[in-house]
Amino acid sequence: MILLLEDDPAIAQTVSFALQREGFEVAHHSWLKEARAAWAQQAPRCAVLDIGLPDGSGLDWLRELRQQGWQTPILMLSARGEELDRVLGLELGADDYLCKPFSPRELVARVRGLLRRAAPSSHPGLRIEGLQAHWNGQLLDLTRRELALLQALLEAPGRVLSRDQLLDRAWGQASEAGDRTVDTHIKTLRAKLTEAGAAEFIRTHRGLGYSWDPCTSA
């Protein structure tokens, strides 16, 4: 999911359409407080943030996110073209910066680039783009929940993620789903990866959770 924080309706519509046309799921917000609440419910794969907002500054939120330890790729949008503003955004932790007006195709290309650079390199056969996942060029028939679980594991290779962490990522903090729901979806995800010819990369840690381990086959 791509989080878009932009208060200009015309720009928001253009950006959302361009990203959705390429298969990305977009969550658009016009207010900083709305975007903060949405992020708390489900962290995005990438964020596109405007600087000037009705209830605050995108730069201030960028600083907060980086101070909290979030490494999510962030692209800043701004009508300010001065070098000082661009440098400030990059120094605060922005991964890229785009000045208005801009080409929607260029924005999509930059988002793709950020996602490619952020993707773990320990699984060269696996590619996730938008709402689709491919293994060695073969499309994986994954549900939205399965894709979210896979993405969460891939973003933390070798690290054990608890069922609660996976629930928050794939279902959101407000969900009433339980541990058995995660186990069931992981089982189905494993079966689909195996059917596509992938090795058993999802490892179970009894009583702890799951991890993505490309070095294991059990």
From TrEMBL:
Transmembrane segments: none
UniProt keyword DNA-binding, yes or no: yes
Molecular-function annotations in GO: phosphorelay response regulator activity; transcription cis-regulatory region binding
InterPro entries assigned: CheY-like_superfamily, OmpR/PhoB-type_DNA-bd, Sig_transdc_resp-reg_C-effctor, Sig_transdc_resp-reg_receiver, WalR-like, WH-like_DNA-bd_sf
Cellular component annotations (GO), alphabetically ordered: cytosol; protein-DNA complex
Positions bearing 4-aspartylphosphate: D50
Ranges where the OmpR/PhoB-type domain occurs: 112-214
The keyword DNA-binding belongs to this UniProt entry's keyword annotation: yes
GO BP annotations, alphabetical order: regulation of DNA-templated transcription
CDD domains named in the record: trans_reg_C
Top-level taxon in the UniProt lineage: Bacteria
Keywords associated with the record: DNA-binding, Phosphoprotein
Segments of the chain annotated as binding DNA: 112-214
Gene3D superfamilies, per database record: 3.40.50.2300, 6.10.250.690, Winged helix-like DNA-binding domain superfamily/Winged helix DNA-binding domain (1.10.10.10)
Residue span, Response regulatory domain: 1-115
PANTHER family: REGULATOR OF RPOS, TRANSCRIPTIONAL REGULATORY PROTEIN CREB
UniProt name for this protein: Two-component system catabolic regulation response regulator CreB
Source taxonomy: Bacteria, Pseudomonadati, Pseudomonadota, Betaproteobacteria, Burkholderiales
